[in-house]
UniProtKB/TrEMBL annotation:
Species for this entry: Stomatobaculum longum
Phylogenetic placement of the source organism: Bacteria, Bacillati, Bacillota, Clostridia, Lachnospirales
Transport is among the record's keywords: no
GO CC terms of this entry: cell outer membrane
KW Cytoplasm (keyword) present: no
Transmembrane segments: none
Protein name: OmpA-like domain-containing protein
Cell compartment(s), UniProt: Cell outer membrane
Length: 411
């Protein structure tokens, strides 16, 4: 009997010990699970917080720019007068107004020969290597043999008077073009084809307006101010400046000393920001164009890289897609069967980097247009920094050189 009770007691103790050990394991497992869940929750919360912070930072910045960074004032590019549009062109300037109304995009007729784009000449082409006079019906030509001369074409409504140094005046009553320029590039220019008006002195100060895209630019000795729709940018000589967008409510004030204050609604923050660069200037006027003018055989659409891409990137910005959609529609409706897209950069960075970037950007535009139903044969070229259209010594020049050109044969 005692033996039986002893065995039962030992068995009970064994079961109890086993139960205690099992309980400890269960508690340990539950604790580990809780810790893992807590760590996962913390990681998720940290990720959510980081996403919220990034979204907030993005909301407090100009799209494609860092918080506190003010975009460059877009460079003003004037159309060439020494080239005339072909009346039989498949795509005319009138059909491209929706595109050219976007700031940063220009559309001009050009002549392409031997892989070179001829935008018009400023070399006098009157007479035959000497002075002389010519009159035939509505056409009157007189040249002094040194680049100076007069040209009147009553049928076309064109009057040109040009001095040896390129100063003079150009009037086209039918197209609504008038140019008066001094030998230092100062003068006035009006072009109803593009809604452009410019008055500028020899220091690049003056007033530019474009009624087609709603852009107004004023420049004086101390500052340049740019307005396009609800966006206004001001840059001052001391490196300070401001940006405001009445639609989004975003405002940026750069103090020119390394800080920028960003405001949007009730949100306000101060961030590090480099002073703005060299004060940009309005373009001086070129020489009075040559006569007779070249006749275009292509249309050149130039897109400022800042319109399409973020800095050093080649992904199409969401804001640029609508512009490329309009281009795709234009190409499709005109039944264009082949055209070329060329990428260009400024001289910053090394040659290999710029070459690759220019190729990637040209291909990115090509691939996007194909997704929008463009079936034409598209050739792409990247030229890097090898084909500048302006000096790389100034911010305005570098901005003009960072571009994508779309060359469309029109005849």
């Amino acid at each position: 009997m005692k033996k039986t009770m002893l065995c039962a007691t030992v068995l009970a103790l064994s079961v109890a010990a086993t139960g205690c050990a099992s309980g400890k394991k269960t508690e340990s497992s539950a604790a580990s699970t809780a810790a893992a869940q807590s760590e996962a929750a913390s990681t998720q919360a940290a990720g959510t917080a980081a996403e919220t912070t990034a979204a907030a930072a993005s909301d407090m910045a100009v799209p494609g720019y860092a918080p506190g960074q003010i975009p460059e004032i877009p460079a003003i590019v004037l159309p060439e007068l020494g080239i005339s549009e072909n009346p039989a062109a498949k795509i005319t300037l009138d059909k491209t107004k929706a595109l050219s109304s976007v700031p940063g995009i220009t559309v001009t007729p050009v002549r392409v020969e031997n892989d070179q784009i001829q935008r018009g000449s400023t070399v006098m082409q009157l007479g035959s290597n000497g002075e002389g006079q010519y009159k035939d019906g509505n056409l009157t030509v007189q040249t002094d043999g040194n680049g100076a001369g007069q040209y009147v074409d009553a049928e076309r409504g064109i009057t040109i008077q040009r001095d040896e140094d390129g100063a003079g005046q150009y009037l086209d009553s039918k197209l609504g073009i008038s140019l008066q320029v001094d030998d230092d590039g100062a003068g006035s220019y009006k072009d109803d084809r593009y809604g452009i008006s410019l008055m500028v002195d020899d220091d690049g100060e003056g007033l530019y307006t474009n009624t087609q895209n709603g852009v107004t630019v004023t420049a004086d000795d101390d500052a340049m101010s740019y307005r396009a729709g609800k966006v206004q940018i001001t840059q001052k000589k001391d490196g300070s400046g401001s940006y405001s967008d009445a639609e989004s409510g975003l405002k940026i004030e750069n103090d020119g000393k390394g800080k920028a204050t960003v405001t949007k609604g009730t949100q306000k923050t101060t961030v590090d920001a480099a002073p703005l660069g060299t004060l940009p200037r309005l373009p001086r006027l070129g020489a009075v164009p040559a006569v007779p003018s070249l006749e275009a055989n292509s249309l050149l659409i130039t897109l400022d890289s800042g319109v399409l891409f973020d800095v050093d990137k080649y992904d199409i910005r969401p804001e640029a897609q609508e512009t490329l959609n309009q281009l795709a529609k234009l190409l499709t409706e005109a039944e264009i069967t082949a055209f070329e897209i060329d990428g260009h950069t400024d001289s910053n960075a090394d040659d290999v980097y710029n070459q690759t970037l220019s190729e990637n950007r040209a291909n990115a535009v090509k691939e996007y247009l194909k997704t929008q139903g463009v079936t034409a044969e598209i050739t792409t070229q990247g030229y890097g920094e090898s084909r500048p259209v302006a000096t790389n010594e100034t911010a305005e020049g570098r901005q003009q050189n960072r571009r994508v050109e779309i060359i469309i044969p029109t005849v």
